[in-house]
Amino acid sequence: MVVVGVPYDLATSGRAGARAGPDAIRTASPHISWERRRWPWRFALDDRIQIVDAGNIDFQIADSHSMVSALQTQTRSLLSAGKTQLILGGDHYITLPILREYAAKFGPISLIHFDAHADTDDSEHSQGEFNHGSMFLHAQREGLIDPTRSVQVGIRTEYAYEGYPFTVLDAAWVHE
After folding, report:
1. How far apart are CA 91 and CA 74, in angstroms?
2. CA–CA gap between residue 97 and residue 118 (Å, rounded)
3. Quick check: 104 pLDDT over 90?
């Protein structure tokens, strides 16, 4: 497994800061590495899986096109080498370039999406090439994901209820 960071947050509509995610996760994680066996498992993870941290993707700061190109190139390269990725983001938009490469290799894929928002916004607010609130709408339209075999978990905001193609396990259902 290859860990890849994507310090990007230009597609967010809320507040900046998600770009610090990859480094923050790395900073918070080393304290668990001293435990050979991590409860509830009765094995050491490194006995079963090889993990390497490839660092953050290199792209031109404040250039969304550069990030998309670099992320798709990195993802394509790792998939071609038979590697599995663990991507540390970054805002939600980074999912779309990753899905493009996985779908190019495997065909339309199933999505399991945990979030408060459906990220399928089709309003005027979500227009534009780079938007963290509409990437699953674009992924569906591009044929990257199969919505009939996909589920969104924890949704607590409005979405197009009638004829909505994804299975939704909303926040109330999850809480119950």
Report:
1. 18
2. 18
3. yes
Alpha-helix residue ranges (DSSP H) falling in 29-63: 45-48
pTM for the structure as a whole = 0.88
Gap between the Cα atoms of 1 and 101, Å rounded: 17
Provide the 8-state DSSP code for 91: S
DSSP state of 119: -
pLDDT digits (tens, 9 = 90+) for 15-37: 788 898 899 999 987 766 666 66
Beta strands in the chain (DSSP E): 2-6, 52-56, 85-89, 112-114, 151-155, 167-170
36's CB contacts (< 8 A; 6+ apart) are 44
Whether the link from the prior residue into 107 is cis, omega within 30° of 0, is no
Chain centroid, CA 128 distance in Å = 19
